[in-house]
Amino acid sequence: MANKDNNERIERFLREQMSLEENEAFLNDLRIDKDLREEALMMALMIKEMKEDQARQSEKLTQDVLAEEKQAKMAKMIRMIRWPLSIAALFILIFGATLLWNRQSDADALFTEYYSSYTLEGELRGGDSDVEKELTALFNKVGTTKDIAPIIDQLQKIHDSIDSEYEYSLYADDITWYLALAYLKDNKPDKVKDLLKPLIEKGDKRAKKLYDAI
């Protein structure tokens, strides 16, 4: 029953018969459901082959009756063009979603490997205790918060002020490291690499290992 429902949804999508809400729901399911993606790809390939065969037969028939059916031929071609375009769009969507999913999975795996919660372990650096508490909370939220964007914004502002704020400069490397991890969690590898470079220049082997793994 589930396969029948999937086939009907895929066919309606290709025929562009879905409402806006149904279309958005289908695209979301397609992104997260591997079985649905495989069914959609299989149906798209089958339809593509059928359409190519139909196009060849239609071309031959059209050549035979071109003089009498010129107008009908043009109308038919206009109707048929929508399906191939939908199929091409589906291919792009499936392979694009798969690539994005794989990249996100790789980023998640690296984040899990390199992230660890932050503790001062009673070792003060001569800074303000409130700053220490603030940074500890932010660093740990990098690992626990699903919506990482607000944490990135806060850490980026702190990172940008390291040179002008003495209290933050005491934790410069920690701030840089956890901001890099936050960008890794958000699947922004270029940002991660830019942040890791100064740490690598200081001889941070952990940063070098992560840089090479991205």
Write a structural description.
It is a single chain. The protein is built from 11 helices and no strands.
What tags apply to this protein structure?
214 residues, mainly alpha, 2 domains, elongated
Count of distinct strands? 0
| Structural class computed from helices and strand pairing | mainly alpha
> Given the C-alpha coordinates, what overall shape results?
elongated
Our Rg estimate from Cα atoms comes to: 27 Å
Topology as H/E string? HHHHHHHHHHH
Largest sheet: none
Furnish the topology, listing elements before pairings.
Layout: H1 2-14, H2 20-32, H3 34-64, H4 66-80, H5 82-114, H6 129-144, H7 149-160, H8 166-169, H9 172-185, H10 189-201, H11 205-213
Summarize the structure.
The chain has helices spanning 2-14, 20-32, 34-64, 66-80, 82-114, 129-144, 149-160, 166-169, 172-185, 189-201, 205-213. The chain is mainly alpha-helical.
